[in-house]
Amino acid sequence: MHTPTRETDASVFGPSVRHGRVNEALLRELIPDPSECYAYLCGPGISKWDREAARELGTEPQPKFIETTLGNLLKIGVPNARIKRESSG
After folding, report:
1. What is the pTM of this model?
2. Largest CA distance in the chain
3. Which of 8, 50, 58, 75 has the greatest number of CB atoms lying within 10 Å of its CB?
4. What is the pLDDT of residue 20?
5. Is position 68 within any domain?
6. How far apart are CA 57 and CA 72, in angstroms?
7. 4 located within any domain
8. How far is CA 57 from CA 44, 51, 75, in A?
9. pLDDT digit string (tens) for 10-54?
């Protein structure tokens, strides 16, 4: 499933493309049995520079793709041991 966020009409690409960000509703739709699936996350995550900048401002760093999607996968019942991660950024 591809989910472009900048394309205004993702339907021109076919049925395996959805417009917008990966969210909890999409994960629930695509993962019929969360307890039995494996999830592979690769994308931007909070970097050490994000953490340093937030610390200087006295705030928390804003979650990026990895943190948001990881939270949603856990929320729908995917076991943490079945979620593989590779972060960039």
Report:
1. 0.82
2. 45
3. 50
4. 82
5. yes
6. 27
7. no
8. 21, 10, 30
9. 567 777 888 788 999 999 999 999 999 999 999 899 999 999 999
Q: Quote the domain boundaries for residue 42.
A: 10-88
Block residue for tokens 């856990």: 74
- Within-domain flag for 25: yes
Give the integer Cα–Cα distance in Å for 86 and 40: 8
Q: Which of 44, 37, 27 is nearest to 83 (CA)?
A: 37
Nearest partner of 70 among 56, 86, 54, judged by Cα = 86
d(CA 6, CA 8) in angstroms, rounded, equals: 6
CA R_g for the chain: 15
**How remote is the C-alpha of 29 from its chain's centroid?**
15
Return the amino acid letter for 38.
Y
Structure tokens at 36: 């039995």
Please report whether residue 2 resides in a domain.
no
Write phi, then psi, for 11 (nearest 5 degrees).
-65, -20
Q: Contact, 18 vs 2, CB < 8 A?
A: yes
Q: Decide: helix, strand or coil at residue 16.
A: coil
